[in-house]
Amino acid sequence: MRTFRVAVALLALSAAFSPQARAATSGTANISLTLSAINELSVTNGAGISLSGTAGSNSLTGASDTAAALNLSHNSATALKVTAQVASPPSGNDITLTVAVAGGVGTMTLVNGGAAQPAQSVWTGISAGAYSNKAVTYGASCTASGTPVSANTNFTFVVTFTSTN
After folding, report:
1. Were 60 and a residue from 51, 81, 85, 129 both cysteine, which residue would form a disulfide, CB within 3.0 to 4.6 Å?
2. Quick one: three-class SS letters along the chain?
3. How many domains are there within the chain?
4. Domain containing residue 105
């Protein structure tokens, strides 16, 4: 009987030190993450518009320029909008310049008869995310009497796009 007790005691003792019998332990760690607010906007240049007219017509028009693209990434909790503006159009003309962004609010006038207009909302309600290659379409027109030139003349318009709340 004594042998049996010693065998049971040894069996109990070996079970207590067995790797399978030990209780599992765990630990925790904290990691800090800083998320930067982003609001990145880029727009590529257009190809240009050539205006011309026909005999007996004062109106000068041309095909729209669809070569430009807008790219936007933002993570704002608030929906953004994109505005467009020409702050200082070339003087001495009656050119009207319009712009539209695919999926935006439609065609907006940036310069009307040679006069700059206030910033125009061209795309609104933009949820956080990444948007690439949104087509930007420019249109232009003028009159022969309001934009006299001696030879082919290039007019350059600087369009500033801004993403904001």
Report:
1. 51
2. CHHHHHHHHHHHHHHHCCCCCCCCCCCCCCCCCCCCCCEEEEECCCCCCCCECCCCCCEEECCCEEEEEEEEEECCCCCEEEEEEECCCCCCCCCEEEEEECCCCCCEEEEECCEECCCEEEEEEECCEEEEEEEEEEEEEEECCCCCCCCCCCCCCCEEEEEEC
3. 1
4. 39-164
